[in-house]
Design the sequence.
């Protein structure tokens, strides 16, 4: 949504397919001045490692074609309801000395 102007930096997380995976970067987040936090412990996570984990997760989402981008109205027409919301969870499965950050897209 950042790409088409519906979501700006530092707003509530939402996920939307980008039209071309080659152009998928987290440049907006890299340039933004905010921090990531572990969803379990609440501790601050290193930005560069967290962004690498997010990129790896999104590459898997696109590689496995988990969803297709369709007009929002199609969801209402077929189901009678709005789309299911998504968010990202970032968790350090390592420790403070040896980070092992995982980012997962969840519904």
Sequence:
């Amino acid at each position: 949504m950042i790409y088409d102007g519906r979501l700006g930096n530092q707003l509530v997380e939402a996920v939307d397919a980008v039209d071309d995976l080659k152009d998928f970067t987290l440049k907006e987040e890299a340039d933004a001045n905010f921090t990531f936090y572990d969803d379990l412990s609440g501790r601050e996570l290193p930005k560069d490692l967290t962004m690498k984990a997010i990129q790896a997760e999104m590459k898997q989402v696109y590689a496995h074609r988990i969803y297709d981008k369709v007009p929002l109205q199609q969801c209402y027409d077929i189901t009678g309801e709005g789309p299911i919301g998504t968010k990202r969870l970032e968790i350090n499965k390592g420790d403070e000395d040896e980070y092992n950050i995982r980012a997962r897209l969840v519904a």
Notes: Residues 21-106 form one domain. The chain has one domain: 21-106.
